[in-house]
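Lab manual, section 2.4: Encoding a predicted structure.

Procedure: take the sequence of the chain (211 residues), apply the prediction step described in section 2.3, and record the output as structure tokens. A sample record is shown.
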Amino acid sequence: MTDGKALGADDRIASVLARIQAAVAAGVDSVQIREKDLAARELLALSRTAVRAAEETGTANARVIVNDRLDVALAAGAAGVHLGGESLPAREAARWCRSGNAPADFLIGVSCHATEEAREAEDFGASYIFFGPVFDTPAKRRFGPPQGIAKLAEVCRAVRIPVIAIGGITEKNGPECFRAGAAGVAAIRLFQEADDAAELKRAIERLHDTK
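Recorded output:
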């Protein structure tokens, strides 16, 4: 997941793209563009460039997902859209996309914070869900206390679609999420704050080895 504001660079877009290229080259499966304060034109330009960069850089056909903006995701040729609590209602987005208005393989991700929310997301056609926060993290404290590994495992058992763990994920606790049944992990700091490309690649390889 990207967070251009946290990079503190003069050229935010270039910095985000550099991080995306490094992450894709290192072997991530998906990149979620999470630049919520960008205007639509800027977000579209960034997303289109990110899709091209992923196609050119990726060794495993990494997917680019756009946060919140279904219109931008489709216009940019992204693999999907990820919807949170303040986004377009996920049920309506799924109904519209599954009615032939989006590619058949277009992904719809939904952020969930409870087992029933996860079941509902699966019922209305979500491709995958984010569940969390699993561990403590400043960015997710507004959603309440950490849910913990036991709750993550409960949600993984409750649905058939992939569950991605989010919230305070590190290289150390990531394996716990996989053992609980998570199909993957999502993070900002883990991937964005690596000192160099080699360190990032090693971290991703170690996480993949624990799946």
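Check your result against the sample. The radius of gyration is 16 Å.
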